[in-house]
Every structure is written in structure tokens, then in C-alpha cells.
Amino acid sequence: MPVPKWSLSGEYMESCNCDYLCPCIYTNPQEAATHDQCIAVMVFRIDEGSFGATKLDGLKFALVIRSGKVMADGNWIFAGVVDESADEAQRTALAAIVGGDAGGTPAVIRQNLVSDFRGVEFKPIECHMDAFKRSASIADVLAFEIEGVLSRNRSGEPLYIDNTGHPANRRLALARSKETHFHGFGLDLDMVGKGNNGHFAPFAWTA
């Protein structure tokens, strides 16, 4: 059965266990991560979205990645979480997108970099945005809080890195994490007060 055309746009936020600034971002990602493994959690809020005739506005989802020392080497663990508030049709649509079965960015990730796909779960997802602060939580899975690194030129804007190969957006705001916790899909991470890496940006995907 053909996969319907789909599109998603909204806001994304991320925290990973690398020191600020994550070397994966500015090395395409060819250089070694800060630690032996990179664990990244990305939460997406859909402001406008559709999968064929199924509307996805207002829903959320998350991607979980664990790579080895060099992200470009592949062999990733990959998993997803879909907003529990989605109805049956929306769950089916988002699970197909998030799991990489419906084409688009998640499919590119899974086909080229993933060796261990650990599935998609349905959980309540919360995310909050307040000026340059972002936070997200998923019951029994993750919680993180990041804050943009403001430029000293008094522009009222965070620092950005541009023309990246990041799946969410080519232009990312730079942020640091106040705390990052992840316990799910066989992975565990707790970092508090480490100032580890974070990003946020608008996102727009189609397939």
C-alpha cells in the first residue's frame, strides 16, 4: 500500500551528553564525541502536520539516538516516542514517520546509520518554551532542561551555528543543559549541572 504524502512543521529541542559545543555538529560528524558514546534526545512539537488526510497538529514526538565515538560510523541505537494523546489514526501515522517506515528524515537516519532499532512507544509528552529556555519530559523515559547561550552583542538572540547537516534544521540555536535524564530502551543517562550540549530550532519535514 502506498505511503501517503506527509508534512510536519513546528519546533524542536535537544540535549545530548557531549560537552558544549558538541563536536559532532561542526565536524560533519567525523570527529570523536566527548565520551565513548553519544546519547541524544530530541523532542518535536508539531504545529502543523498531516499524513494524507490525517491531521497531526498539536502532537509531539521524540527521537532517541545512541552512537559510538564517531557518529558518522553508524551502528546507532535508534528509538522513538509518540504522543499518547494521539488517536488511533494519528498514532499509526506518527509511528510510521518516527520509525522510518514512511520516508523522510527518520527513514534516512534508520537506513544509513542504525543497526539496532528499538521500536516506538506511546507516552505522554510535555514540552515548554519560555524565551530562550526549553524543557521536555516523557513519563518514565526522559527529562531535560536547556537554555540558549546568548550573544554578548546585546542582540537579544542566542548564538547560532549555521549550514549544519543536522536532521532538524541547518541552523541551530546553541544551548546548554541544566539537567538531562534518560532511562528507556535499555539506555541510562543522568547529568545535572554539567552544562552539556543542547540545541533548539524550528523544523519542517516532508515526504
Task: Offer a few descriptive terms.
207 residues, mainly beta, 13-stranded mixed β-sheet, 3 helices, 13 strands, 12% helix, globular
Description:
The chain is built from three helices and 13 strands. The chain starts with 5 loop residues before the first strand and ends with a strand. Strands 1, 2, 3, 4, 5, 6, 7, 8, 9, 10, 11, 12 and 13 form a 13-stranded mixed sheet that branches. It is mainly beta and 207 residues long. Strand 7 and strand 8 (133-138) form a beta hairpin.
Task: Please outline what is shown here.
The protein is mainly beta. The chain has 3 helices and 13 strands. A hairpin with a 3-residue loop joins strand 8 and strand 9.
What order do the helices and strands come in, and which of them pair?
Elements (H helix, E strand, L loop, with lengths): L5 E14 L3 H4 L11 E14 L2 E2 L4 E8 L8 E8 L4 H11 L5 H10 E10 L1 E6 L2 E6 L3 E7 L11 E2 L10 E13 L2 E6 L3 E11 L1
- Total beta strands: 13
Count of DSSP H/I helices: 3
Low-confidence spans: none
Strand composition percent: over 45%
Derived from helix and strand composition plus strand pairing, the structural class reads mainly beta
Morphology call: globular
Question: What integer value in Å does the Rg equal?
Answer: 16 Å
- Order of H and E elements: EHEEEEHHEEEEEEEE
Largest sheet: 13 strands, mixed
Overall average pLDDT: 96
Whole-Å distance between the termini?
A: 15 Å
| Oligomeric state as shown | single chain
Share in helix: 10-25%
